[in-house]
C-alpha cells in the first residue's frame, strides 16, 4: 500500500516566493486524488516527481482562482502525455460554466479520458476504486464542497487462531471470501473465530469555509485531516467575513473529531515563514495530537492503520 499526501502548494489567494497556489495530490494505493489544482500546479508536479499518469481524480472544492486556475494545464498535460485511464473530475455542479471554461481554456489536442462528476446536494458518495469519495457542502461566499476518502472496514487475520484450527494455504482465502470454511478435521471455522475487526483508513480535505456542521462531519474520526487555516486568531473576524478558518478553529475541529494527524494549509500571504510556529501553537492549544504545518513539496504519509 502507498498512501501519502504530496503538497504542491499552500498559499491562499496570492502566491508568495515560498508558497505556490493550492495543490494537493493524495496517493492512495492505485488512485491519485488531485485536490484544488491552482495556478502553477503542473510545474509543482515536476518538482515533486509526479506526473499526469498519477492522477485518477481531479477534485475542485470551489471556483475561486487559487483553487482551480491550474485545471487547464493539468488537463492539457493529461492529453499531451496520453494518459489512458479514466480521470474523474468532481466539482460543484452549480459551477458548471466555470468548469467548462477551464476544461476547454485553449486550443489543444483534447482527450476523452476526463469524465465529469459534478457534485450537488447535502451529501454525495462517489465510488473511487478501493475507496469511497464523499462530498459535503461548506460555508463560503461561493458554492464550495469538502471531500473525504474512506476505505471500507475489514478484518485482521490472527495467525495463531488460524493455526490452532488447522486453516492454512488456500483455505485462508476461502475463509476471507466466504466467511466460513471446513477445516481438515471436518469442523466449521467462522471468520470471526480467526480475525478481529479492522477499521478502514480515511482522510478528509477541507478548504475555504467557515465553521459549520459539515466541517465536523467530514473530519469525524479521520486518520488525516488537511484543512485550511488561512488566518490566525487575531484576524478571526476577517476569517468569518471572508468564509475562512483560523488555525485555532482547525485545532478545535481536529480535537472534537478525534483526528489522528492534522495538516494545516492555505495560508494568507500576510504571514511569513517565521509565523509558522504561531499557526502550530494556536492549533496545538486545542489539539494535542500530531500537527503538520504544510510547506510546498512536503510528502506527508497517511498514519499507519490502527489495529
UniProtKB/TrEMBL annotation:
Cited InterPro entries: Metallo-B-lactamas (IPR001279), RibonucZ/Hydroxyglut_hydro (IPR036866), RNase_Z/BN (IPR013471)
Alphabetical list of CDD domains matching this protein: RNaseZ_ZiPD-like_MBL-fold
Cofactor binding, per record: Binds 2 Zn(2+) ions.
Positions that bind Zn(2+) 2: 66-67, 208, 266
Domain Metallo-beta-lactamase: 19-142, 198-267
EC number: 3.1.26.11
A GO MF term: 3'-tRNA processing endoribonuclease activity
Keyword Nuclease: yes
Pfam families registered for this protein in UniProt: Lactamase_B (PF00753), Lactamase_B_2 (PF12706)
Named cofactor requirement(s): Zn(2+)
Keyword match GTP-binding: no
Catalytic activity annotation: Endonucleolytic cleavage of RNA, removing extra 3' nucleotides from tRNA precursor, generating 3' termini of tRNAs. A 3'-hydroxy group is left at the tRNA terminus and a 5'-phosphoryl group is left at the trailer molecule
Active site, UniProt feature: 66
Binding locations of Zn(2+) 1: 62, 64, 140, 208
EC main group: hydrolase
UniProtKB keywords: Endonuclease, Hydrolase, Metal-binding, Nuclease, tRNA processing, Zinc
Alphabetized Gene3D superfamilies for the sequence: Ribonuclease Z/Hydroxyacylglutathione hydrolase-like (3.60.15.10)
Subunit structure: Homodimer.
Annotated function: Zinc phosphodiesterase, which displays some tRNA 3'-processing endonuclease activity. Probably involved in tRNA maturation, by removing a 3'-trailer from precursor tRNA.
Family named by the database record: Belongs to the RNase Z family.
Name of the featured protein: Ribonuclease Z
Organism: Microtetraspora glauca
Gene that specifies this protein: rnz
